[in-house]
Design goal:
This protein is mostly helical. It has helices at about 10-25, 55-75, 85-105, 115-130, 145-175. About 60% of the residues lie in helices and about 0% in strands.
Length: about 180
């Protein structure tokens, strides 16, 4: 049987674990459970839980988001200029950036979306995707008078149709 790449959340968990190792910090173990990494949480040694201040959490999240961004930039080096607007090509790095920003915010209980994560998302759009144009026609709402006519016409027809059905049912009873 041929080996296959891990899929789904297992792959994401391994990538986050690699990112943890890449960061070289003890953040992966702070208040975290060991489940999902092939280790039984009941046999793991007790984990030290720190009482983090908001400033420390923000500083830590700032450092981690910088590493998330560097990881994203490294992944985007493999994407050629003509491929920058192809969702099939960029979805993986873009999704990993979003997952990294959101996952660490959740892990640190920092709140997501937040201004820092939003800044990195905007930065990715400005740096990589600013020349992407939509190849499909963009649909917009019809003018207000057309929209109003499309809404009012069926509403006005309903009482007329109800009256017609009642009138015809009374007429058929009279003939019987």
């Amino acid at each position: 049987m041929a080996p296959h790449a891990p899929t789904g959340s297992g792959r994401l968990a391994r990538r986050l674990l690699l990112l943890c190792a890449f960061l070289g910090t003890g953040l992966c173990h702070v208040g975290a459970e060991a489940e999902g990494f092939g280790q039984d949480a009941r046999t793991s040694p007790p984990v030290t839980v720190f009482n983090w201040t908001a400033q420390l959490v923000e500083e830590t999240y700032t450092n981690i988001t910088q590493k998330c961004w560097e990881f994203f930039v490294d992944l985007m080096r493999n994407v050629t200029a003509p491929e920058l607007c192809e969702w099939k090509v960029i979805s993986r790095p873009y999704s990993l950036l979003q997952a990294c920003l959101e996952g660490w915010a959740d892990h640190l209980r920092y709140g997501y979306p937040n201004a820092l994560a939003e800044q990195y998302i905007f930065q990715s759009h400005h740096r990589y995707f600013h020349n992407c144009t939509l190849q499909h026609q963009v649909y917009s709402d019809p003018p207000e008078d057309v929209l109003l006519a499309m809404i009012i016409a069926p509403i006005c027809l309903i009482p007329f149709l109800v009256t017609l059905v009642i009138w015809r049912s009374k007429d058929s009873k009279a003939q019987a």
